[in-house]
Fold this sequence. Notes:
The structure holds two protein chains of two kinds. Chain A is α+β, with helices and mostly antiparallel strands. Chain A has eight helices and eleven strands. In chain A, α1 runs antiparallel to α2 (19-41). In chain B, a hairpin with an 8-residue loop joins β10 and β11. Chain B has one domain. Chain B contains six helices and twelve strands. Chain B starts with a helix and ends in a 15-residue tail after the last strand. Chain B is α+β, with helices and mostly antiparallel strands. The chains are: A alpha+beta, B alpha+beta.
Amino acid sequence: MGSHAVLFNMVTTTRSKGKGQRAKVMAKVSGLLLALVALSVTPAYAQIDLTGTWQRVGQNDNGASREPVDLLGMPFSADGRAKALSYDIAALSATERQCQMYPPIYAVVGPFPLQFTMVPDPVTQKLLAWKIAGWGDRDETMIWMDGRPHPSKNAPHTHGGFTTGTWDGDTLTAVTTHAKLGDIKRHRGFSSDRATLTYRFMRHGDTLTVTAILDDPVYMAEPYVLTEVYRLTTNPNNFPLTACEPIEELPTLHEDPTLVPHYLPGKHPAMNEVTEHYNIPLEAVVGGPETMYPEYRKKLKEKYVMPPPCKDACGRPPAPGQGRGQGQGQLLNQQGEPPAGGRGAAPPAGRGAPPPK
Amino acid sequence: MSRALVVVVASMFIAFGFARVDAQRGNPQPPRAPRAAAPIDLTGYWVSVVTQDWRWRMVTPRKGDYQGVPLTLAAAKVADGWDPAKDEAAGLQCKSYGAPALMSVPGRIHVTWQDDNTLKVDADAGTQTRILRFGAAQPAAANTTRTWQGTSQAEWLMTRPNVPLQLRPMERSADTPPVRPTGGSLQVVTKNLRAGYLRKNGVPYSENAVMTEFWDLYKRPNGEEWLTITTEIEDPVYLRNTRRVAPIFKKEADGSKWDPTPCSSTW
C-alpha cells in the first residue's frame, strides 16, 4: 500500500469513529504528514566520485621559481619572512632532514598527480575516507569522511597531518591540521605546525580544480590561497612514496654534525636575483600581504622599468622536430612545461651546494 | 480542528512534499528565471588576490617571456613583434583586457544582475564589462561584431540530487540531522572574441579562441567568501593545447576600493 493510500485510509477512518478515537487518529495523521514532509523536503546527499589519477595541468607558477628568494605574492608575516630568508636549501642534506617530507600544501604545489582512491567502510562498503596517495617526498593524505573529530592540539604532528572532509554539494571540503613544519614553495617559505590547510575539490567533468587555503598564525599575515587544475588521466606519471634511506650527501655536514646550514639576517646571497633578472623591486620580492592586492601596483608603477627582452628560459615553443622547447627539462607535464619543483628536479641553488662558511 | 481543515492542511503538505519529490526525480517543473534559480550568489564586489603568476600579472613582463603558456610558433612570432606604442597609437590598448585575460588582470570585479536572465560583470581594470546571458544560445550572425569580451553563454550547474549509495557518507547516529545539498556552479562559455593578448606583453589569442569557465564559491566558517574561476581556453591558432588557469577572488564588503582605470598597453 502506497503512502497516498495509507493517508486516504486514515483520513476516511476519522469519519466513522467516535471523538476519542478521532483524536488518536488525528495524531497519527499528523505524525504521518510530518514524516511525509520530512522525507519529501530532504533531498538525497549530493556527492561526486573523485576516484582516479588526476594529472596536474594548470599553467601557473605555484611551485616554480628559478630564484631562491622569490616570495612574490606570498602573505608572509615578519616571522614568516625571516624564516624564509634564513633558509639554506643545503639543510636538506643533513642526515636528519633527508627523509623529511613536504607539508600538505605540497599536494597543490608539487609536480605529481593526485591519486585518489576510495576507502570503504569494511562492513557497509560506504565511503569512509578518500585517500590521496603519497609520492616520493609527500606523505599520503587520508581524508576521513565519517565525522570523526580532529585530535587534541597536543597530539603528535606528522608530515601528512590529520584531515577530515565534508561535502558541500558536489564539492569536497577537506581540512588538515597536525602537520609538521615544512617548506611550501620550492624552499622559499614555510608553514608552521600550527597551520590549517583547507582544500576545496571541485570536479567539473574530467577537470578537477583544487583551491587550497593555508591559515598559519605563525608565518602568514593573511590566508595564502592557491589553486591548481587537474585532468583525469589514464596515463599517470606517479612517483610512489617509498622508504627513504639517508646517505652522505655533503661531506662537510657529516664531518661537522654541529653545522646547521642557514643564512643570517640580511645575508642571503640570492636576495637580489629577482630584482636583477626582472627589475622587480626588492620590497615586493620579499612578499607580504599587501603585495597580493591590485592597489600594490600603484606602488610599483613608479619603481618598475621593464627589463630587456627575454633571452633565456622564456618558455619558447619548440621548433618542429626539436623536442619540447627552450628551458624545459625532465618531468614535463602535459603542457610541456617544466616541473613545478620537488626534489626530483634539481633546484638552481641545488641540494649539494656547500653550506656557508 | 474541523475535518475540512485537516483535509486542507493535508493537501498542502502532500502537494508541497510531492512536488519536491517530483523535482528530485527529474519530473518537469515550471522553469524559474536564472536569477531566482541561482544556487549561489555571485553578486557583490570581489578583489583579485594575486598569489600566482605574480611576475606576469602585477607588472608588465618583459618582451618574449612566454613561460607557462603553451604557445604555437605562430603565436611566438606574434608575441615577438609586440609593440605597445603601436597598439596604443592604433587604439588597441584594450588588447590585454579581453575576456580570456580579464579575470587574471589585477583588479576588482562587481557582479550584478542586469535582468532576470543576465549577469553583468564589471571590471575596474580597463573599465570593461562582461555580459553573461542565460538561456538558449543564440546562433551568432555572420556579421556579428567581435568584441574584447565576446559573447558569453551562462548556465547554472546544479548539485546532483541523487548519488550512488556507496558514496553517501557514513551515518553517525540516528539523530544526526540530514545534510541538504547546497552549492552549485556557474558555467560560462565565451566565443566571438576579438583577438587579443593573454598577457600584457603581447602573448596572443586569436579570434577563434573559445573560453569555458566554472565559477565556484566557498563561504568559510569565518565569513570570508572566495571565488575560484576555473578557466579553460582553447585556441587552434595560437595554443598548442588547452590553457588552464584558476584565478581567485575574495569578496569585499562594499565598493569603497573600486577604482576604474582605463586600458593601458604598457601598465
